[in-house]
Please model this.
Amino acid sequence: RQPVRLSEQYKTDVMQRTLREIEEVPCWLLVADIRSFTPLSRHVQSEDLDVLLGRWIFSCNEIIENRHGMINKYLGDGFLAYWPDVATSPEEITAVISAFKELQRKQWPEFRFVVHFGAVAIGGVASMGEESLMGSEVNLIFRLEKLASSLGEPCCVSETANAKVHGLVAT
Model:
């Protein structure tokens, strides 16, 4: 049996359609990650860990969706969420930050979160029903999360996000 070869025209058409569907959109981004997840997973039975993780993600998702955001990617012990700027006010993001800080006070599980604002490329070929988010701002928020982790900080707000919330959040 011969392998199926795609015509050059078909490849070009798909590429152009994909490129047309990608747009640059100013967005609020949030990355949350359970702190010290690997040691935690060694000391907690897998069923209990599943319940803990499920309850935490459910609580976070409820906060995000109540403020018109959506989780874009689940990352094992964390996630990436976003809000398009046109549909989101700084007050809504401030409410999200406050709700996440309140959730952190419960201390189980301990987690950190980072908030950033920037233009991201949205669209292209969606994987598993998730909108594709791409670009340097997406890369930056993950680097900020690693920085917050290395500094032991429970929360980080980027300079651009801080400027957008106009002092509504103490930083």
About this structure: Strands lie at 23-34, 70-74, 78-84, 111-122, 133-134, 155-157.
